[in-house]
């Protein structure tokens, strides 16, 4: 299956709700106040959120006025353009070149609350980067949940990449430290660190993440450091609230939105972009290793609305 078909397939439920609702509005007779009110309401009800819905409608109003469009069908194309422009982000960090000859060149910390799909995503991401030719290693820094290391190891085997674990320690920072050392010895390009989604309490979790971040900073000063926040699309607007909490603790460089395939709340993608100043880097559209897609704003908007 091609990239676009896969994306479209993953968005099936969202297409059935959000895209259908939007289509109905655009079937209206005339672009007027009622039209914009209906569009805004449809977007808000489809997890785009108040902020995103208002932004889209304001831009669309401006375009309609400027181009003197009164036929809704004609305005649809502009709507898709606005959505893809809104989702676009200037800095494509995955392509940013690391400085000097750092090893590892890139360290990715994967964070998020429990159950959102971190470990699965680490496996998929390792596979994706390996397929692109990178030498990848994965660190099992979820030392909290008993089965976490074994679960990750299954993914690492599937992806066929290096793995660093230490089941004798409960200190995730120690595992990351070991993994960095190992990565330097082996000449690893990208080190991906899985983390716990739950500790004894939220404060503990956030403090641990900050500590891990400091260890990476101190031991890999020249590497490109990324923090990917994993959000579960099925939780809709709650995902945005979670992101705000993590934003206070770590510098999130990208968002990975998982489980798009299982939800009609895919509209949250638009909300994420409009509410948080962080780019969406990947979307998860299934439970298999190749079910992680690089987020492409134009293709996403097209797959959803065309
Ligand atoms: N359908 C679907 N399921 C997914 C996707 N990503 C993850 N999952 C499922 O979500 C469940 C939780 O995934 P994990 O990777 O264990 O989540 P986690 O964030 O590591 O969980 P904790 O380690 O407990 O915090 C698993 O059953 C995954 O198969 C996705 O894109 N689509
Ligand atoms: Mg996990």
**Unique bound compounds:** guanosine-5'-triphosphate, magnesium ion
Count of individual beta strands: 8
Largest sheet: 8 strands, mixed
Strand order of the largest sheet: 3-2-4-1-5-6-7-8
Number of helices: 12
Question: What kind of assembly state do the chains in view correspond to?
Answer: single chain
**Unreliable stretches:** none
- Would you tell me the structural class of the helices and strands? alpha/beta
- The helix-strand sequence is HHHHHEHEHEHEHEHEHEEH
Strand content: 5-15%
The average pLDDT value, as a whole number, equals 92
Report the principal-axis shape: elongated
Radius of gyration: 21 Å
Keyphrases for this structure?
single chain, binds guanosine-5'-triphosphate, about 300 residues, binds magnesium ion, alpha/beta
Mind explaining what this structure looks like?
With 306 residues, the protein is α/β, with parallel strands linked by helices. It is built from 12 helices and 8 strands. It has helices spanning 3-10, 12-26, 33-45, 49-67, 72-87, 118-131, 148-159, 172-186, 202-219, 238-247, 268-275, 297-305, and strands spanning 106-111, 136-141, 162-164, 190-195, 224-232, 254-258, 280-284, 292-294. The protein has an 8-stranded mixed β-sheet with strand order 3-2-4-1-5-6-7-8, with helices on both faces. α2 (12-26) packs antiparallel against α3 (33-45), α4 (49-67) crosses α5 and α8 (172-186) packs parallel to α9 (202-219). The longest helix has 19 residues, at 49-67.
């Amino acid at each position: 299956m091609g990239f676009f078909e896969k994306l479209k397939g993953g968005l099936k439920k969202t297409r059935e709700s959000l895209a259908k609702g939007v289509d109905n509005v655009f079937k209206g007779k005339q672009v007027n106040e009622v039209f914009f009110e209906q569009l805004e309401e449809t977007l808000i009800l489809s997890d785009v959120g108040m902020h995103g819905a208002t932004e889209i409608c304001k831009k669309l109003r401006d375009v309609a006025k400027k181009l003197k469009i009164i036929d809704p069908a004609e305005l649809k194309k502009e709507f898709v353009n606005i959505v893809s422009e809104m989702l676009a982000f200037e800095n494509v960090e995955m392509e940013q070149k690391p400085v000097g000859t750092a090893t590892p060149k890139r360290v990715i910390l994967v964070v998020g609350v429990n159950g959102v799909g971190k470990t699965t995503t680490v496996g998929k991401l390792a596979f994706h980067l390996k397929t692109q030719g990178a030498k990848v290693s994965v660190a099992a820094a979820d030392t909290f949940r008993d089965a976490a290391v074994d679960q990750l190891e299954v993914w690492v085997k599937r992806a066929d990449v290096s793995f660093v674990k230490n089941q004798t320690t409960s200190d995730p920072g120690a595992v990351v430290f070991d993994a960095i050392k190992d990565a330097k010895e082996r000449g690893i390009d990208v080190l991906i660190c899985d983390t716990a989604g739950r500790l004894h309490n939220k404060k503990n979790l956030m403090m641990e993440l900050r500590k891990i971040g400091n260890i990476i900073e101190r031991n890999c000063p020249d590497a490109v450091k990324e923090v990917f926040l994993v959000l579960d699309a099925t939780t809709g607007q709650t995902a945005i609230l979670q992101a705000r909490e993590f934003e206070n603790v770590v510098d999130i460089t990208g968002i990975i939105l998982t489980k798009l395939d299982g939800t009609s709340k895919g509209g949250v993608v638009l909300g994420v972009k409009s509410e948080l100043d962080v780019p969406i880097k990947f979307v998860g559209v299934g439970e298999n290793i190749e079910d992680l897609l690089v987020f492409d704003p134009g293709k996403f908007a097209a797959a959803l609305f065309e």
